[in-house]
Every structure is written in structure tokens, then in C-alpha cells.
Amino acid sequence: MRHNRPHFLAGAAGLVLACGGWTPFAFGQQRTGTRLILLGTKGGPRLGGRRKNPSTLLLINGVPYVVDCGYGTSQQPIAAGVPLNGLRYLFFTHLHSDHMLEYGPIVYNGWAAGLRTRVDAYGPPPLRNATQAFWEYVRFDVDTRIEDEGRPDPRQLLVANEFDAPGVVMQNEDVKVTSATVIHPPIKHSYGYRFDTKDRSIVISGDTNYAPGLIALAKGADILVHEILYLPGLDRIMARVPNAATLRKHIVDSHTAAEDVGRVAAQAQVKTLVLSHFVPGDDPDISDEMWSEGVRKHFKGPIIVGKDLMEI
What we know:
Blueprint: H1 5-19, E1 34-40, E2 55-60, E3 63-67, H2 75-79, E4 89-91, H3 97-100, H4 103-112, E5 119-123, H5 127-137, H6 139-149, E6 158-162, E7 167-171, E8 175-181, E9 191-197, E10 201-204, H7 212-217, E11 223-229, H8 234-238, H9 244-254, H10 258-268, E12 272-279, H11 288-296, E13 303-305
Parallel strand pairs: 3-4, 4-5, 5-6, 10-11, 11-12, 12-13
Antiparallel strand pairs: 1-2, 2-3, 7-8, 8-9, 9-10
Helix pairs in contact: 10-11
């Protein structure tokens, strides 16, 4: 596992505890096969704090596969040493803003950095409408730069592949990507993803309550990256918002409490559980051990408390 130096020094004790003694790879070390990098690990649309909004990167034989694009996602691959002009695949679990606000910007920023090849985006409706709306939003800038700077038309590079049912999403010689419906009311089309490569199987839960479909999708996976809700931490959130009752119901109905995360991982018999999309995600009083304590009641395998730019 690899971590950027500033974050690693700040969280080394918790990381060693969570990983059962695993140690980080040196920053910049090259690895072959399938690499998993947590770009942003905070749940929800709020900015600030120690974590950035949700996004996960898989590098499969050097090709980037980005799952979700919360605000700030464009900067995180660069911080991890992955240039944006090599962008190739994007996947969206659902279209809440904290999962897609930088959908258009990451493609645009890749184009500004020299992207010249096709980018395929996969996700539920209204992905096509969101794609069209972004290009309309930046139409003046794009048209100006094409004429004034001789750049290719980025609208011809981005292909939106929309799906509205679980199943195989895409497959090539390196990976098979499968989706399963998860529980994130009131959103009907919300999905988890499984990436099966030649050397690893990695599942990303997306936003969900306890979901039998996710358990089936994750069966026997090498790694399950699962969101987590720390229920005692909700009280501090509720104390500062006027819509406390409605917001609390949404959070509890749409996310997975720590003990249920443990149940999902145990029932799926995954080899390693990675906690991410933390709710609340910006509370410094919640320690790594507090995040994992409820999970350990049911899952006895390795638990990693994720941090931004951590490589697993």
C-alpha cells in the first residue's frame, strides 16, 4: 500500500492499526497489474476538512479507470502522479453532485493538458443529459480555443454510455466491469461496481444502505471499498443545520452503519475491506479505531481505514 508522504506522516499510527501492520510503498514507485488509489474519501457535498469528495482510481495496466468525480477530483490524479491527458474511462455510481460535479471538468482539464483520445463514461440516467449540459455550459470557451489554439473538439472525444439496469457494463482484454443495484433512496438508479482483472477483483459500493445485491456482487472479492456511516457522529451535524430531521432520515436510509458494513463484508467473504466515503467525513474527533470498531464485530479480516491518495 502506498501513501503520499504528508498524509502518511499524519496518519501513520492509525494506518498501521487499520492495516494489521501493512506498510506503504514509496511514493512514485511503479507497479504493474491493477492498482487502487483512493482519490477522495469524504461522503457528502461539503468542502473542507481533511478529506476531498468521493472518487476512486483504478490503474489497470497503466490505464486509468475513475469511479465517481466529486469536487476536486481533477487535482487528485495529478497528486498521485497520474497525468490527466491519459484519461480513458469514467464510471458513476449515481449522479448526486458529490459523485459527479467534476465529470465535465476532469474531461475538460484532461483536454487542456493535451488529451487527444476517446474517453468513455458509464453511468445511470441522466448521464447523457448531464454530458450535453456541460458542453453547452463551456461552449463559448471550447469553440474559442478550438479556433484560436488549434485544439481538437473535446465533444467528439467524450462518449456517454448510459445504462438503467444491473449487469455487465463494459469488458475489454484487461477488465470486466459489472454493476449491481444498491439502496440509496430516493434515487432509483444507484449502482455498485465490480472490476475483475487478471490479478485482482475490486468492488466499489457507491452510496448504499445494507444491500443484498451488493453482497452478491462482492462475493469472494479481493477488495471491497465500502462507504460507512458513523451514527454517533450524526448528532454534531444535526445540531448545526435547520433541516435536521429530514437530513437525518436521508442519511440513515441511504448509507450503511458501521456494523452493517461488517455484515456485508463477512457475508460476501471478501478478503480485505477498505472503508471510504465517510459520513460524517470532516469530523476530526472520529478516530480510525472509532470508524472500524463497529465493523470488527462482524468482519474478522483486514480492515483499512481509507485516506485520500492512499494506494492499496
